[in-house]
Amino acid sequence: MTIRALFWDIGGVLLTNGWDREQRAEVVTRFGLDASAFGERHKLAVPELERGRMVLGEYMAQTVFYTPRDFTPDDFRAAMEAVSQPHLETLALARELGTRHRMYALNNEGRDLNEYRVRTYGLNQFLLGFFTSCYLGVMKPGPAIYRLALDLAHVRPGEAVMIDDRAQNVEAARSVGMQGVLYENAAQLRKALAELGAE
Ligand SMILES: [Mg+2]
Asked: Which residues span the membrane (predicted)?
């Protein structure tokens, strides 16, 4: 079948993860927070953050600034943003693929960090739309977000490829009929897309 659209995960694919375990551990250590207290609060707040029902300021108020600190919310936000780094080879491949394919983001992220990452790394220069959990109110690996993205992009499942670094998210994409590529690195992705006839 002809491939008509590519759907990209962002964290762990085009960029480093946004606010995953490793990034949280790094920032929590830097600010000398109690990792277990932070972890408990994060677990309760993050689904609301990523579904767009809580902004970053509210998330930080619940997880960090519920008690006096010797640093400010701006300091903490800056540290959260600084751990986002680009995967340069994959970004270059994506820009090249964007000249031949319709391409969209399909990712889980909170609104503030997502906007920072899109703007900082120019992801809107080659992605035509952002089907992101914070805008759609649903998250991967739930099938609803894949179906919504397919409907909004108006593409048949079999003509769409999901590129994601998590096996569970790729499996969920396949469960709604999409093609799936489990991302490892730029070279492997190029080869996998070529095998699907999408290079
Ligand atoms: Mg990912």
From this structure: none
Task: Kindly give the distance from the C-alpha atom of residue 69 to the centroid of ligand 1, in angstroms, as a whole number.
Answer: 31
User: What's the gap in Å between 118 CA and the centre of ligand 1?
Assistant: 15
Nearest to 81 by CA among 30, 120, 54: 120
Average pLDDT, the chain: 97
Q: Residue 67 Cα, ligand 1 centroid: separation in angstroms?
A: 32
Q: Are residues 123 and 54 in the same domain?
A: no
pLDDT of residue 199: 73
Tokens for 77, please give them: 């936000």
Instruction: Domain of residue 34: give its range.
Output: 21-82
Same domain, 96 and 161: yes
Coil, strand, or helix at residue 87?
coil
The end-to-end CA distance of the chain, in Å, is 14
Residue pLDDT, tens place only, 114-171 = 999 999 999 999 999 999 999 999 999 999 999 999 999 999 999 999 999 999 999 9
68 CA from centroid of ligand 1 (Å): 33
Q: 144 CB contacts (<8 Å, ≥6 apart)?
A: 138
**Same domain flag for 34 and 127:** no
Domain boundary among 82, 102, 133: 82
Distance 13 CA to ligand 1 centre (A): 6
Q: What is the CATH number of the domain that holds 154?
A: 3.40.50.1000
Counting as low any pLDDT under 50, the low residues of the chain are none
